[in-house]
Design goal:
The chain is an alpha+beta fold. It folds into three domains: 17-64 and 108-274, P-loop containing nucleotide triphosphate hydrolases (Rossmann fold, 3-Layer(aba) Sandwich); 281-378, Rossmann fold (3-Layer(aba) Sandwich); 389-526, 2-Layer Sandwich (Alpha-Beta Plaits), CATH 3.30.70.3280. It is built from 15 helices and 33 strands. Strand 4 (107-113), helix 6 (120-131) and strand 5 (136-141) form a beta-alpha-beta unit. It is globular and about 80 Å long. It binds guanosine-5'-diphosphate. Guanosine-5'-diphosphate binds at residues 19, 21-27, 90, 141-142, 144-145, 256-259. Residues 10-278 form the Tr-type G domain. InterPro entries: EF-G-like_DII, EFG_III/V, G_TR_CS, P-loop_NTPase, PrfC, RF3_C, RF3_dom_3_sf, RF3_GTP-bd. It is found in: Cytoplasm. GTP binds at residues 19-26, 87-91, 141-144.
Length: 528
């Protein structure tokens, strides 16, 4: 008989949703929770978002960030599985957190608006998933509205995102003529009947494409469907679980999240095909989830709004072993053993204290300033997980102090905020600027706010002539030294002590790359 550890691990499904704002991520999340039995939650995800739109007040920001500690991870049971859904901040608070959350999942769900197709944010998030060949399922949403031809959409996904598409369900009409979906593998038509809110879809299911009942309900659309499907099946890939797991093919589902339609079909296949926790690379060896000895890494640190705990929460993804309440764990980077008495788990809406947690689960650790992004916890082995990178920022600002005597506090504050992953810091070799980098504009506001409140430093951020950054390295030390001298005006040291090329324009970067072919310019940097 398999051990409890093996059984519990095998039934974990840990994933995140990637999408462009407004495609329907919040609605899909809510409906997944609805089907996961956390019905009382329907509406709360929305409420959080409404609050975000309604105000830009910083206290509100804090509050929202606090609330989202609990909704950053949502765990719910479905069939025999335990699903962990990791929220990726969308909208204006898009940040490095979003990217790093994707390093803690085993698969992703891509939500696409049927009318809009592949959008810019989706492309970026997909690039991040590519770094680890994360398996991706696709949900094409809003079929109750007029949109683009499904065939064209699949074509666009294949072309723009470079991943093969395998339709698992196929829509019957759209907009006013939307009648439901046909499930290719099950040879069954699921009929659509619009429902809103907290009720699950109870539409009729008709078995078999040739079933005369189909002509009865669909009229002329039945013949259209058969014809279209013949074409689709001839022209598209059929679902191949192996290609999906390798990140080469995405199974595609159609539906309408707001009407609870298509979500159950998606979830049913998700728990069957989405991967259980996968092995993880460390600097020394591969860690298998089946290993008895505990290991995990921190991928996110967030302010905790519980007034009882004015500390921060470090989110740790468990990679192997079983976590038990009160366990003593080695905090590898600082080589210290700590007893974890009050870790948080994230069961549906309630934040609960963890008794036990397994590979694939996320637990929250209270962080009093010692935990950094990328930190590893084990039962003693000196492991360091890899693949939790910093991403090259796309936005840059120069920190400007109102009171020059506060330089020390500013530097200390920035260093700590960098370790938490709130921002990145670059110090040019040839001047005393402090240049901050981010991938989302809100990161600067958060940093300014936290500097003021936590470090008592009033800083402003002004534009600076930097457009992009690359970490540089070279096997040939003499060449690197030469580069360091000749390109000094464009070089800086980041908060981890690594050398970074900061370019005023993309053209400048391109020219530097052409001029220095021996130098590696990298868009990501590992924590460490
Ligand atoms: P997010 O920004 O990706 O989280 O998207 P939301 O879930 O907030 O959805 C954006 C908008 O699309 C909201 O007004 C939703 O009510 C609407 N929406 C979501 N799903 C559907 C759907 O299936 N059909 C229609 N017509 N609208 C939808």
């Amino acid at each position: 008989m398999p051990s409890k550890h093996a059984t519990e691990t095998a039934r974990r499904r840990t994933f995140a949703i990637i999408s462009h704002p407004d495609a329907g991520k919040t609605t899909v999340t809510e409906k997944l929770l609805l089907y996961g039995g956390a019905i009382q939650l329907a509406g709360t995800v929305k409420g959080r978002k409404a609050a975000r739109h309604a105000t830009s007040d910083w206290m509100e920001l804090e509050k929202e960030r606090g609330i989202s500690v609990t909704s950053s991870v949502m765990q719910f049971p479905y069939k025999d599985c335990i699903v962990n859904l990791l929220d990726t901040p969308g909208h204006q608070d898009f940040s490095e957190d979003t990217y790093r959350t994707l390093t803690a999942v085993d698969s992703a769900l891509m939500v696409i608006d049927v009318a809009k197709g592949v959008e810019e944010r989706t492309i970026k998030l997909m690039e991040v998933c590519r770094l680890r060949d994360t398996p991706i399922m696709t949900f094409i949403n809003k079929l109750d509205r007029e949109g683009r031809e499904p065939i064209d959409l699949l074509d666009e996904v294949e072309r723009v995102l470079g991943i093969a598409c395998a339709p698992v369900t196929w829509p019957i009409g759209m907009g006013k003529r939307f009648k439901g979906v046909y499930h290719l593998a099950r040879d069954a038509v699921h009929l659509f009947s619009p429902t809103h809110g907290g009720k699950v879809q109870q539409g009729e299911i008709i078995q078999g494409l040739d079933n005369p009942r189909l002509d009865e309900v669909l009229g002329t659309q039945a013949a259209e469907l058969r014809e279209e499907l013949e074409l689709v099946m001839g022209a598209s890939h059929s679902f191949d679980a192996e290609a999906y797991l390798a990140g080469q093919q995405t199974p595609v589902f159609f539906g309408s999240a707001i009407n609870n339609f298509g979500i159950q079909e998606l979830l049913d296949d998700f728990v069957v095909y989405a991967p259980a926790p996968r092995s993880r690379a460390t600097q020394s060896r591969e860690i298998l989830p089946a290993e008895e000895s505990f290991s995990g890494f921190v991928f996110k640190i967030q302010a905790n709004m519980d007034p009882q705990h004015r500390d921060r929460i470090a989110f740790m993804r468990i990679c192997s072993g079983t976590f038990r309440k009160g366990a003593k764990l080695r905090h590898v980077r600082i080589a210290r053993d700590v007893r974890i008495a009050d870790a948080l788990t994230f069961m549906a809406s309630e934040r609960e204290h963890a008794e036990e947690a397994y590979p694939g689960d996320i637990i929250g650790l209270h962080n009093h300033g010692t935990i950094r992004i990328g930190d590893t916890f084990t039962e003693g082995e000196a492991l360091a997980f890899t693949g939790i990178p910093n991403f090259a920022p796309e936005l840059f600002r120069r920190a400007q102090l109102r009171d020059p005597l506060k330089m020390k506090q500013l530097q200390k504050g920035l260093q700590q905020l960098c370790e938490e992953g709130a921002t990145q810091l670059f110090k040019p070799l040839t001047n005393n600027d402090l240049i901050l980098g981010a991938v989302g504009i809100l990161q600067f506001d958060v940093v300014a706010h936290r500097l003021r409140h936590e470090y008592n430093v009033d800083a402003s951020f002004e534009t600076v002539n930097v457009q992009t950054a690359r970490w540089v390295s070279c096997a040939d030390e003499r060449k690197l030294e030469e580069f360091r001298e000749k390109a000094a005006a464009n070089l800086s040291i980041d908060h981890g002590g690594d050398l970074v090329y900061i370019a005023p324009t993309r053209v400048n970067l391109q020219m530097a790359q052409e001029r220095w072919p021996e130098i590696t310019f990298s868009a990501t940097r590992e924590h460490g």
